[in-house]
């Protein structure tokens, strides 16, 4: 979905977590179903971690602080899955066990700097 003239496109207003997917409720009334297994970090998260989502830039970005996962609405609308490698996921899982979660993502840091 091309976006031009400074428009940010549809924005997320809420999500609903289900067993195998999550529903993104958009400000234009649409509901998008997204499988957890498209995003390994979300797939490996607990129910509590999955429900802890932040809406950044007025719903343009979704951020899961406990899982250090960031998604864009443009990416979700385009059907883009995670491109993270299996090696990276294994490292993330190992580090997660050692130190817990809660690190700030690159997107969240960039948004905070821009504010």
The low-confidence parts are 1-6
Report the end-to-end length measured between terminal Cα atoms: 27 Å
The coarse overall form would be globular
Global mean pLDDT: 85
Largest sheet: 3 strands, antiparallel
Helix content: 25-40%
Q: What portion of residues belong to β-strands?
A: 15-25%
Q: How many beta-strand segments?
A: 6
Strand order of the largest sheet: 1-2-3
Quickly give the structural class: alpha+beta
* Oligomerization: single chain
Order of helices and strands: EEEHHEEEHHH
Q: What is the alpha-carbon Rg in Å?
A: 14 Å
Helix run count:
5
Give the SSE layout.
Elements: E1 12-17, E2 21-26, E3 31-35, H1 40-43, H2 47-51, E4 54-56, E5 61-64, E6 69-72, H3 73-77, H4 86-99, H5 106-114
Antiparallel strand pairs: 1-2, 2-3, 4-5, 5-6
Overall description:
With 115 residues, the protein is of the alpha+beta class. The protein has five helices and six strands, in the order E-E-E-H-H-E-E-E-H-H-H. A three-stranded antiparallel sheet has the order 1-2-3. A three-stranded antiparallel sheet has the order 4-5-6. The longest helix has 14 residues, at 86-99.
